[in-house]
Fold these 2 entries.
Entry 1:
Amino acid sequence: MRLHVLGLFAFSSIASAQLTFNVTKAHETGNWDKYVCLTNKKFIERVPDCLKKCQSDAAKKDGCAEDDFACHCVNTQAFSDLVEPCAFPPELGGHGTCTTDELGPVRGIITDLCNFFNASLYSAYEDCPQPLSKDLTHSIIECEETVITY
Ligand SMILES: *[C@@H]1O[C@H](CO)[C@@H](O)[C@H](O)[C@H]1NC(C)=O
Ligand SMILES: *[C@@H]1O[C@H](CO)[C@@H](O)[C@H](O)[C@H]1NC(C)=O
């Protein structure tokens, strides 16, 4: 599909998703401080301006609690289906304003984020104030294979 040409959010557009993570990368110094209790408001500071509103809207609409990145990350397909058409420019099949230059760094940001949350799930959300969607997250991953690398 044209929308997935950059594959920014949908890392595997193959039919059956796998809960994937690299343990070494997840444990890199600074990650915990960067991601503990992560909210959408805090995360959008890290994405380009053209993406902020799309990111924010997608986080409210993908079925997960807005400030639950463990859920957004395992819910990649629903999330990408919302954020990509919103952010991608017409030449990439969307109706957004991001240029390919702006989108370039986003993949690394999302991979790092979701690698961390795929690996840690709710550990970094213990004792955090926001509502979470643990049931949805667990219902998604219980049907998936887990692929751990180091
Ligand atoms: C896992 O992440 C580490 C640190 O970023 C990297 O050096 C290693 O190559 C990665 N492993 C795999 C299998 O990608
Ligand atoms: C996180 O896991 C989901 C499946 O639950 C997978 O689709 C996604 O690609 C994984 N993200 C990373 C960065 O490995």
Entry 2:
Amino acid sequence: MAKQKFKPGNMLYPLPVVMVSVADKAGNKNIVTVAWAGTICSSPPMVSISVRPERYSHHMIMETGEFVINLTTKELAFATDYCGVKSGRDIDKFKEMKLTPVAGDVVSAPLILESPVNIECKVTEVKSLGTHDMFMAEVVAVHADEKYMDEKNRFDLTKAEPIVYSHGAYLTTGKEIGTFGYSVRKNKPKPNKSKSRAGKNVPAKTKKKPKKRES
Ligand SMILES: Cc1cc2nc3c(=O)[nH]c(=O)nc-3n(C[C@H](O)[C@H](O)[C@H](O)COP(=O)(O)O)c2cc1C
């Protein structure tokens, strides 16, 4: 198998791309698009975002120690890109993109109403890594849009058409091809699901049921 060798760089793609909403102590608010974001702990629930110190948003997060991660969708792709190329130093991104700031429960940074999921975060540690400062933060509240709840009262984000970021492109996510633990699950996949789910690598009989845990 022949492989190209690239110089070491950021190749971990696709990535979630999120709109991070922030506010300073005076109440000025802003939105910054972030792709260097991730889940870093299950309990306590923790996330990280890496932001360059020169971003206008950077000092706002430093000032309050708070931010909100707003998940993005196909419908929000344009605004996601715009908030990643324009600075809050020059314009009001909420106004320009017709996004609605709403008060959160815990943090002073606003939620973006149009986003299907808003994750309120409180910074626990800031680590200067080089080009970026990594803000490690605890999740202190989560808001999910009711319109994406299904008949069984489960949240179904696929209905919101979430997007990912990969090598400079925004992509919608594809069809479900399995669910957590499907590789060892005893029950056969439902007949109306896609064929790939019932692929030939699925063992016919498996005794152990996987724990319902993602990480
Ligand atoms: C798809 C995308 C992903 C981005 N990811 C990051 C990131 O992870 N960290 C960062 O510091 N800037 C990132 N940026 C750049 C900032 O969003 C951009 O510089 C923005 O204009 C800064 O806004 P501000 O000056 O209002 O804070 C990204 C931009 C785009 C379009």
